[in-house]
Amino acid sequence: MNSPVRAPAAGRSPLGLVAGAVPVLAVLVLALVWGRDLPVIAEALLVVLLTGAVLAAVHHAEVVAHRVGEPFGSLILAVAVTVIEVGLIISLMTSGGSSAASLARDTVFAAVMITCNGIVGLSLLLSALRNRVAEFNPEGTGAALATVITLATLCLVLPAFTTSTPGPEFSGPQLVFAAVASLALYALFVFVQNVRHRDYFLPVHAPGERPARTGGGPRADEEHAPTPSLKSAFISLGLLLAALIGVVGLAKVESSTIERAVTAAGLPQAVVGVVIALLVLLPETLAAARNARRGRTQIGLNLALGSAMASIGLTIPAITVASIWLGGPLLLGLGATQIVLLALTAGVGILTVMPGRATLLQAAVHLALCAIYLFLAANP
């Protein structure tokens, strides 16, 4: 969830008005429906409101992030999305019993596969259609991909092979170590991306365009975006908190309905994790596509890989802390099929990133991998 490139519309624009109304509406509706049995139509409307609250939360997080600047802006965006993801996971885990023991793993793995294949593939596709060849910085993108691969292996692959405890789970000390290491790696990446080597993550300018700045000031393609006022930032901060309360609360209300729908459709429990990841990553997908259409492939890749990194580096530590009072096992280790898909994603990603240029073929390969994952998640 890194490197926002322009301030979202705020104030009295249609987007700003809708984003301002949805969090308040979500909190009011939550107070009305909490603890009640609802008809099917009301459940469907709640799902729509839940989706709107997620989009509103990310919108207001971007407003605050644009006001405070980097590197704190990226942290605010990542923390906001992580709160949504963790809230959805915990809401479903508390009501799902033993069947929800693998929900955190399924959600994080889904986020990695969707970002590293779906969003990356979509960004490359739109950029290649626009410019024939999608260009980006291999130094920054390679560093991001290496961090994602390391975090995914540490938190999702190793638990399937450790021997301290039976089953695909870490022992207590192992889980704490993985959480601390994940958080440390994510924090270091944020520092490198936003301070130490910021120029590695800036868009590659097309011939004839003025290159982006490499210093600490705003990028050339950001100069037109006005910084929100302090009042607007505080209003967005309050609406962000309201949206997060609405998201977590409505997710708790809808948790049993989501699980019943998945069961009634005859789908595996892992599909619940896919649904959560798709919902949380919807704003990131839209933002990446918007930047790719403008030829800013690097920003799309930053968003994709940054989201994958935050999903592991922030969600796993949060779930580790939550597991203290949740009780029950926390299954993190992937199965054989998932490990093969992750290894294939890592190999293809490395080959895509190394040249710093990609065509429609690389985009299609990533999108095919995302489709394979989604199909096998529903048909293991």
UniProtKB/TrEMBL annotation:
UniProt xrefs under InterPro entries:
Alkaline_pH_Ca-Antiporter, NaCa_Exmemb
List the subcellular locations.
Answer: Membrane
Pfam families xref list: Na_Ca_ex (PF01699)
* Keywords attached to this entry: Membrane, Transmembrane, Transmembrane helix
Lineage: superkingdom: Bacteria
Residue ranges spanning the membrane: these are 15-34, 40-60, 72-96, 108-129, 141-162, 174-192, 233-251, 263-282, 303-325, 331-353, 360-378
Q: Which ranges carry the Sodium/calcium exchanger membrane region domain? A: 44-193, 236-377
Q: Keyword Iron-sulfur: yes or no?
A: no
Q: How does it sit in the membrane?
A: Multi-pass membrane protein
Q: Does the keyword Transferase apply?
A: no
Signal peptide limits:
none
What is the protein name for this chain? Calcium:proton antiporter
Provide the species name.
Sphaerisporangium dianthi
What broad taxonomic lineage does this protein's source fall under? Bacteria, Bacillati, Actinomycetota, Actinomycetes, Streptosporangiales
